[in-house]
Amino acid sequence: MKDEQAEITPVLLLHAYAAGVFPMAESRAAGEMFWVDPRRRGVLPLDGLHVSRSLARTMRRGGFEIRIDSAFSAVLEACADRPETWINPEIVRLYTGLYRMGHAHSVEVWIDDELAGGLYGVSLGAAFFGESMFSRVRDTSKIALVALVARLRAGGFRLLDTQFTTDHLARLGVVEISRADYRRRLAEAVVRPADFNALPPDMPPQRLLQLATQTS
Fold first, then answer.
1. Which of 41, 46, 48, 151 has a 20 to 30 Å separation from 176 between CA atoms?
2. Mind listing the pLDDT tens digit for each residue in 104-147?
């Protein structure tokens, strides 16, 4: 098993995502990973993001900066910096490799030039796989999610996979679908072109809010 684990590469990881599975580790100290293929899958419809009034006010008020891919390693480490985590050194290595290939991205919220919150995930075709998020200041992970949805909508993405569904994610609009339905949507999305960088990196939060919530 250890030899097989050592052979996992970022390219193999992309193939796994295309097949509908993703890796996790038992803990940060775990030496190995395992593949996960949930029977029920969480997805956030890109036209179904729920933004509370208080969050909308926060975004309109500003006082923060949203950056893209400027501190991927710091976001990854921040997501792992909690008592229980599935992000071990092997996962850090693999996703850093995907970032260097242009397939992993971070959305970051900065306040007074300090990283206050954010998220990271993987893009493949017109599918984006959200991996983890964190907040050091209230609502900053939600702000990052709004910015992500705006970016995915502008770039022609078709699928935002959240892997699982929690009460917190459900309040943001995440729904649960069957494995069969997920794989159908995944197969349609990964073969389509999309552009994660369709929006400029310095777009104002107020405009991102509009793009993330506007109806067609």
1. 151
2. 999 999 999 999 999 999 999 999 999 999 999 999 999 999 99
